[in-house]
Amino acid sequence: MLNFLPAPLIGLVASLWLALNSLILVPCLMVFAVIKLILPIKAIRLTLDPVLVAVAETWISWNSCWMVLTQRTVWDVEGIDGLDEHSWYLVNCNHQTWADIFVLQHLFNRRIPLLKFFLKQQLKWVPVMGLAWWALDFPFMRRHSEEYLRKHPEMRSMDQAATRKACEKFSLIPTSVMNFLEGTRFTPAKHRRQQSPYRHLLKPKAGGIALALNAMGDKFQAILDVTIVYPDGAPDFWAFLCGKLKRVIVRVQILPVPAGLIAGDYAADAATREAFQRWVQQLWQDKDAQISRLLAESGSQPA
Fold first, then answer.
1. Which domains are seen in the chain, by residue range?
2. What is the pLDDT of residues 170-209, one digit of tens each?
3. 176 - beta bridge partners?
Protein backbone atom coordinates (compact mmCIF):
# COMPACT_ATOMS: atom_id res chain seq x y z
CA MET A 1 0.00 0.00 0.00
CA LEU A 2 1.32 3.41 -0.98
CA ASN A 3 -1.24 5.58 0.78
CA PHE A 4 1.34 6.61 3.44
CA LEU A 5 2.99 8.83 0.80
CA PRO A 6 2.19 12.56 0.52
CA ALA A 7 -0.92 13.18 -1.58
CA PRO A 8 0.90 14.87 -4.52
CA LEU A 9 3.30 11.93 -4.75
CA ILE A 10 0.39 9.48 -4.71
CA GLY A 11 -1.19 11.50 -7.51
CA LEU A 12 2.04 11.31 -9.51
CA VAL A 13 2.31 7.53 -9.03
CA ALA A 14 -1.33 7.00 -10.01
CA SER A 15 -1.00 9.29 -13.05
CA LEU A 16 2.14 7.51 -14.25
CA TRP A 17 0.53 4.10 -13.76
CA LEU A 18 -2.58 5.22 -15.67
CA ALA A 19 -0.44 6.67 -18.46
CA LEU A 20 1.76 3.56 -18.69
CA ASN A 21 -1.32 1.33 -18.68
CA SER A 22 -2.74 3.32 -21.58
CA LEU A 23 0.55 3.48 -23.49
CA ILE A 24 0.83 -0.31 -23.39
CA LEU A 25 -2.77 -1.34 -24.02
CA VAL A 26 -4.18 1.39 -26.28
CA PRO A 27 -1.73 0.51 -29.11
CA CYS A 28 -2.77 -3.13 -28.73
CA LEU A 29 -6.37 -2.01 -29.08
CA MET A 30 -5.47 0.09 -32.13
CA VAL A 31 -4.08 -2.90 -34.02
CA PHE A 32 -7.38 -4.77 -33.81
CA ALA A 33 -9.39 -1.57 -34.31
CA VAL A 34 -7.66 -0.88 -37.64
CA ILE A 35 -8.30 -4.44 -38.81
CA LYS A 36 -11.96 -4.04 -37.86
CA LEU A 37 -12.09 -0.71 -39.72
CA ILE A 38 -10.59 -1.93 -43.00
CA LEU A 39 -12.31 -5.35 -42.97
CA PRO A 40 -15.95 -4.69 -41.98
CA ILE A 41 -16.97 -8.34 -42.32
CA LYS A 42 -19.31 -9.90 -39.77
CA ALA A 43 -17.20 -13.04 -39.28
CA ILE A 44 -14.10 -10.93 -38.61
CA ARG A 45 -16.08 -8.69 -36.30
CA LEU A 46 -17.32 -11.66 -34.27
CA THR A 47 -13.72 -12.81 -33.90
CA LEU A 48 -12.26 -9.41 -33.01
CA ASP A 49 -14.94 -8.07 -30.65
CA PRO A 50 -14.13 -10.46 -27.77
CA VAL A 51 -10.42 -9.64 -28.19
CA LEU A 52 -11.12 -5.88 -28.07
CA VAL A 53 -13.26 -6.35 -24.97
CA ALA A 54 -10.54 -8.44 -23.30
CA VAL A 55 -7.98 -5.66 -23.89
CA ALA A 56 -10.37 -3.06 -22.43
CA GLU A 57 -11.12 -5.25 -19.40
CA THR A 58 -7.37 -5.70 -18.82
CA TRP A 59 -6.94 -1.91 -18.90
CA ILE A 60 -9.67 -1.61 -16.24
CA SER A 61 -8.07 -4.36 -14.11
CA TRP A 62 -4.72 -2.57 -14.14
CA ASN A 63 -6.45 0.65 -13.14
CA SER A 64 -8.03 -1.23 -10.25
CA CYS A 65 -4.53 -2.27 -9.19
CA TRP A 66 -3.30 1.31 -8.75
CA MET A 67 -6.57 2.25 -7.08
CA VAL A 68 -6.03 -0.48 -4.49
CA LEU A 69 -2.35 0.36 -4.02
CA THR A 70 -2.73 4.13 -3.69
CA GLN A 71 -6.12 4.51 -2.00
CA ARG A 72 -7.36 3.61 1.45
CA THR A 73 -10.97 3.79 0.35
CA VAL A 74 -13.76 2.34 2.48
CA TRP A 75 -16.18 0.71 0.03
CA ASP A 76 -19.81 0.27 1.07
CA VAL A 77 -21.36 -1.63 -1.84
CA GLU A 78 -24.62 -3.54 -2.13
CA GLY A 79 -26.40 -5.14 -5.05
CA ILE A 80 -23.59 -6.37 -7.31
CA ASP A 81 -23.77 -10.06 -6.40
CA GLY A 82 -25.52 -12.46 -8.75
CA LEU A 83 -25.04 -10.39 -11.91
CA ASP A 84 -24.35 -12.21 -15.18
CA GLU A 85 -21.35 -11.42 -17.36
CA HIS A 86 -23.11 -13.02 -20.32
CA SER A 87 -26.33 -10.99 -20.25
CA TRP A 88 -27.39 -7.61 -21.61
CA TYR A 89 -27.95 -4.71 -19.18
CA LEU A 90 -28.97 -1.08 -19.39
CA VAL A 91 -27.08 0.73 -16.62
CA ASN A 92 -28.17 4.09 -15.22
CA CYS A 93 -26.32 6.18 -12.62
CA ASN A 94 -26.15 9.64 -11.09
CA HIS A 95 -23.05 11.60 -12.13
CA GLN A 96 -20.88 13.86 -9.95
CA THR A 97 -17.24 13.47 -10.97
CA TRP A 98 -14.92 11.74 -13.45
CA ALA A 99 -14.14 9.36 -10.59
CA ASP A 100 -17.63 7.88 -11.12
CA ILE A 101 -16.39 6.12 -14.25
CA PHE A 102 -13.47 4.51 -12.44
CA VAL A 103 -15.76 3.47 -9.56
CA LEU A 104 -18.24 1.87 -11.96
CA GLN A 105 -15.55 0.12 -13.99
CA HIS A 106 -13.80 -1.12 -10.83
CA LEU A 107 -17.00 -2.64 -9.41
CA PHE A 108 -18.54 -4.04 -12.59
CA ASN A 109 -15.48 -5.27 -14.47
CA ARG A 110 -16.00 -8.93 -15.40
CA ARG A 111 -19.22 -9.03 -13.34
CA ILE A 112 -21.27 -7.74 -16.27
CA PRO A 113 -20.29 -7.11 -19.90
CA LEU A 114 -18.02 -4.15 -20.60
CA LEU A 115 -19.77 -0.83 -19.98
CA LYS A 116 -20.44 1.05 -23.23
CA PHE A 117 -20.98 4.75 -22.55
CA PHE A 118 -23.13 7.08 -24.66
CA LEU A 119 -20.70 9.63 -26.12
CA LYS A 120 -21.18 12.94 -27.87
CA GLN A 121 -20.90 12.66 -31.64
CA GLN A 122 -17.94 15.07 -31.67
CA LEU A 123 -15.82 12.68 -29.59
CA LYS A 124 -15.64 10.30 -32.54
CA TRP A 125 -12.94 12.57 -34.00
CA VAL A 126 -10.69 12.63 -30.92
CA PRO A 127 -7.29 11.31 -32.09
CA VAL A 128 -6.63 7.67 -31.17
CA MET A 129 -9.36 7.44 -28.52
CA GLY A 130 -12.13 8.14 -31.04
CA LEU A 131 -11.05 5.05 -33.01
CA ALA A 132 -10.77 3.06 -29.77
CA TRP A 133 -14.29 4.02 -28.69
CA TRP A 134 -15.59 3.22 -32.18
CA ALA A 135 -13.86 -0.18 -32.17
CA LEU A 136 -15.43 -0.97 -28.78
CA ASP A 137 -18.86 0.02 -30.18
CA PHE A 138 -19.44 2.93 -27.83
CA PRO A 139 -22.61 4.59 -29.14
CA PHE A 140 -22.10 8.13 -30.46
CA MET A 141 -25.14 10.37 -30.13
CA ARG A 142 -26.15 13.90 -31.05
CA ARG A 143 -27.66 15.43 -27.94
CA HIS A 144 -30.40 17.93 -28.67
CA SER A 145 -32.31 19.89 -26.09
CA GLU A 146 -36.08 19.59 -25.80
CA GLU A 147 -36.34 23.20 -26.96
CA TYR A 148 -34.37 22.39 -30.12
CA LEU A 149 -36.45 19.26 -30.77
CA ARG A 150 -39.68 21.23 -30.43
CA LYS A 151 -38.44 23.52 -33.19
CA HIS A 152 -37.03 20.64 -35.27
CA PRO A 153 -39.27 17.62 -34.53
CA GLU A 154 -37.83 15.74 -37.52
CA MET A 155 -34.61 15.30 -35.53
CA ARG A 156 -36.34 12.96 -33.09
CA SER A 157 -36.73 10.29 -35.75
CA MET A 158 -33.17 10.86 -36.99
CA ASP A 159 -31.78 10.47 -33.47
CA GLN A 160 -33.84 7.32 -33.00
CA ALA A 161 -32.59 5.84 -36.27
CA ALA A 162 -28.96 6.62 -35.36
CA THR A 163 -29.35 5.08 -31.90
CA ARG A 164 -31.06 2.00 -33.30
CA LYS A 165 -28.22 1.54 -35.79
CA ALA A 166 -25.63 1.86 -33.01
CA CYS A 167 -27.50 -0.58 -30.80
CA GLU A 168 -27.84 -3.17 -33.56
CA LYS A 169 -24.16 -3.97 -33.01
CA PHE A 170 -24.93 -4.90 -29.40
CA SER A 171 -27.04 -7.88 -30.44
CA LEU A 172 -23.89 -9.74 -31.47
CA ILE A 173 -22.25 -10.04 -28.04
CA PRO A 174 -23.48 -9.39 -24.46
CA THR A 175 -23.30 -5.68 -23.71
CA SER A 176 -23.91 -3.21 -20.88
CA VAL A 177 -25.15 0.13 -22.19
CA MET A 178 -24.24 2.89 -19.72
CA ASN A 179 -26.31 6.08 -19.47
CA PHE A 180 -25.95 9.06 -17.15
CA LEU A 181 -29.50 10.40 -17.10
CA GLU A 182 -28.39 13.87 -16.03
CA GLY A 183 -26.26 14.16 -19.17
CA THR A 184 -23.52 16.05 -17.31
CA ARG A 185 -21.71 16.08 -13.97
CA PHE A 186 -23.56 17.57 -10.99
CA THR A 187 -22.31 20.89 -9.66
CA PRO A 188 -24.06 23.35 -7.33
CA ALA A 189 -23.94 25.98 -10.08
CA LYS A 190 -25.67 23.71 -12.59
CA HIS A 191 -28.19 22.72 -9.93
CA ARG A 192 -29.08 26.36 -9.29
CA ARG A 193 -29.15 27.23 -12.97
CA GLN A 194 -31.56 24.38 -13.71
CA GLN A 195 -33.67 25.13 -10.62
CA SER A 196 -33.67 21.37 -10.19
CA PRO A 197 -36.51 20.05 -8.02
CA TYR A 198 -34.14 17.40 -6.63
CA ARG A 199 -31.85 18.05 -3.69
CA HIS A 200 -28.88 15.98 -4.86
CA LEU A 201 -29.48 15.57 -8.60
CA LEU A 202 -29.80 17.51 -11.79
CA LYS A 203 -32.91 17.13 -13.91
CA PRO A 204 -32.92 13.78 -15.77
CA LYS A 205 -33.05 13.58 -19.56
CA ALA A 206 -35.30 10.76 -20.73
CA GLY A 207 -34.29 10.82 -24.39
CA GLY A 208 -31.14 8.69 -24.29
CA ILE A 209 -32.51 5.90 -22.13
CA ALA A 210 -35.81 5.92 -24.06
CA LEU A 211 -34.06 5.57 -27.41
CA ALA A 212 -31.90 2.72 -26.09
CA LEU A 213 -34.95 0.90 -24.74
CA ASN A 214 -36.89 1.50 -27.96
CA ALA A 215 -33.96 0.20 -29.99
CA MET A 216 -33.19 -2.98 -28.05
CA GLY A 217 -35.44 -3.20 -24.99
CA ASP A 218 -36.25 -6.83 -25.76
CA LYS A 219 -32.54 -7.66 -25.49
CA PHE A 220 -31.89 -6.20 -22.03
CA GLN A 221 -32.23 -8.66 -19.16
CA ALA A 222 -32.70 -5.84 -16.66
CA ILE A 223 -31.97 -2.23 -15.82
CA LEU A 224 -29.23 -1.69 -13.25
CA ASP A 225 -30.05 1.51 -11.38
CA VAL A 226 -26.83 2.61 -9.68
CA THR A 227 -26.54 5.26 -6.98
CA ILE A 228 -23.10 6.59 -6.02
CA VAL A 229 -22.64 8.66 -2.86
CA TYR A 230 -19.43 10.28 -1.63
CA PRO A 231 -20.07 11.04 2.06
CA ASP A 232 -16.99 13.27 2.28
CA GLY A 233 -17.80 15.11 -0.96
CA ALA A 234 -17.25 14.11 -4.57
CA PRO A 235 -13.51 14.39 -5.39
CA ASP A 236 -12.33 16.05 -8.58
CA PHE A 237 -10.12 13.89 -10.77
CA TRP A 238 -6.79 15.10 -9.36
CA ALA A 239 -8.01 14.61 -5.78
CA PHE A 240 -9.09 11.11 -6.77
CA LEU A 241 -5.64 10.35 -8.20
CA CYS A 242 -4.08 11.72 -5.01
CA GLY A 243 -5.88 9.09 -2.91
CA LYS A 244 -8.44 11.41 -1.37
CA LEU A 245 -11.40 9.13 -2.06
CA LYS A 246 -11.93 8.13 1.58
CA ARG A 247 -15.43 6.66 1.42
CA VAL A 248 -17.76 5.67 -1.37
CA ILE A 249 -21.24 4.20 -1.07
CA VAL A 250 -22.74 2.33 -4.02
CA ARG A 251 -26.19 0.81 -4.23
CA VAL A 252 -27.29 -1.21 -7.24
CA GLN A 253 -30.95 -1.97 -7.76
CA ILE A 254 -32.05 -4.46 -10.42
CA LEU A 255 -35.17 -3.14 -12.13
CA PRO A 256 -37.37 -4.84 -14.71
CA VAL A 257 -37.37 -3.43 -18.22
CA PRO A 258 -40.63 -1.41 -18.52
CA ALA A 259 -42.37 -3.49 -21.20
CA GLY A 260 -45.21 -1.02 -21.51
CA LEU A 261 -42.80 1.73 -22.56
CA ILE A 262 -40.46 -0.05 -24.97
CA ALA A 263 -43.36 -0.86 -27.29
CA GLY A 264 -44.12 2.84 -27.81
CA ASP A 265 -42.46 5.25 -30.24
CA TYR A 266 -40.64 7.86 -28.15
CA ALA A 267 -39.72 9.93 -31.19
CA ALA A 268 -43.20 10.19 -32.73
CA ASP A 269 -45.69 9.60 -29.92
CA ALA A 270 -46.19 12.43 -27.41
CA ALA A 271 -48.04 10.11 -25.01
CA THR A 272 -45.08 7.70 -24.96
CA ARG A 273 -42.67 10.57 -24.31
CA GLU A 274 -44.82 11.77 -21.42
CA ALA A 275 -45.00 8.25 -19.96
CA PHE A 276 -41.21 7.88 -20.22
CA GLN A 277 -40.69 11.22 -18.52
CA ARG A 278 -43.03 10.27 -15.66
CA TRP A 279 -41.16 6.98 -15.22
CA VAL A 280 -37.78 8.73 -15.21
CA GLN A 281 -38.98 11.43 -12.79
CA GLN A 282 -40.22 8.78 -10.35
CA LEU A 283 -36.89 6.97 -10.67
CA TRP A 284 -35.11 10.24 -9.86
CA GLN A 285 -37.37 11.07 -6.91
CA ASP A 286 -36.60 7.65 -5.42
CA LYS A 287 -32.86 8.10 -6.06
CA ASP A 288 -32.86 11.58 -4.49
CA ALA A 289 -34.55 10.21 -1.36
CA GLN A 290 -32.10 7.29 -1.27
CA ILE A 291 -29.11 9.65 -1.43
CA SER A 292 -30.52 11.66 1.48
CA ARG A 293 -30.90 8.47 3.53
CA LEU A 294 -27.40 7.22 2.71
CA LEU A 295 -25.83 10.56 3.59
CA ALA A 296 -27.71 10.65 6.89
CA GLU A 297 -26.71 7.07 7.74
CA SER A 298 -23.07 7.82 6.91
CA GLY A 299 -22.95 10.76 9.29
CA SER A 300 -22.32 13.19 6.46
CA GLN A 301 -23.41 16.80 6.69
CA PRO A 302 -24.58 17.62 3.14
CA ALA A 303 -24.99 21.23 2.10
1. 73-298 (3.40.1130)
2. 777 888 999 899 989 999 999 999 999 999 999 998 877 8
3. 89, 115
